[in-house]
Amino acid sequence: MRWILLLCLLTACSQTYQVDTDPYNLPAVGTRVVLKKPVTIEPGTTRLFLQQGEPMVLSEFDRYKPNCNFEISDLSAVAQVIEPDGFLVIKVERLMVEVVRRRDVVTGLLPVGMDGQGTPMVTRGIHLWFDSDRKADVMRLTCRGAFGDMWEARPPSIEEIRAALGEYAELVVAI
Questions:
Q1: Alpha-carbon torsion 42, 48, 54, 59, what sign?
Q2: Residue 116 and residue 84: Cα distance in Å, rounded?
Q3: pLDDT of residue 2
Q4: 2: three-class secondary structure by DSSP
Q5: Within its chain, how far is the Cα of 76 from the centroid?
Q6: Which of 4, 60, 119, 169 has CA atoms 20 to 30 A from the CA of 67?
């Protein structure tokens, strides 16, 4: 019996090769984003949002569903078109945006939020920074998960990013 216990303890500490199948891992540097259809950035903005495979402006998209946006570096008074192209991801960066802070709710004698500040509502996501010689003005693709309480909000999964992009773009994850 002692040998079995010893064997279990020793193997628990050993390193084993595991394929990571967590769908919430970030796409790696070296990932490619292939824009398959032209997209238009409206005048006076620098972003075009995609959600459930459809392009939309900021005021149209549902913050409670995953979404992505292409972002360009130059603001213009005229519409700008991003033509189909491939973009190499050179940097991956997490993001968290606090959208609203709620006051503590008092139930009985104890406040629910013990920090005195309330529980913030946040959106978590990622920036995929691009390198493209032909399209230097296209800076990045930003993808966000569903808006929610800090404890439940998470960045979008790779499959959710693909669903947000739809037929407009393909995410080719580097291995």
A1: negative
A2: 49
A3: 63
A4: helix
A5: 26
A6: 119
- 92: how many CB neighbours lie within 10 A of its CB? 16
What does each C-alpha distance from 139 to 23, 61, 87, 106 come to in angstroms?
Answer: 25, 21, 10, 45
Residue 99's SS3 state is strand
In the numeric block, the tokens 């900021």 are attached to: 58
Q: Which amino acid is at 71?
A: E
Average pLDDT (21-26) is: 60
Q: Which amino acid is at 170?
A: E
Q: Specify the pTM.
A: 0.76
Structure tokens at 148: 């929610």
Distance, CA of 93 to CA of 105 (rounded, Å): 34
The dihedral of CA 109, 114, 116, 120: what is its sign?
negative
Which of 63, 24, 64, 60 is closest to 42 using CA atoms? 60
Identify the H or E element spanning 164: helix 158-165
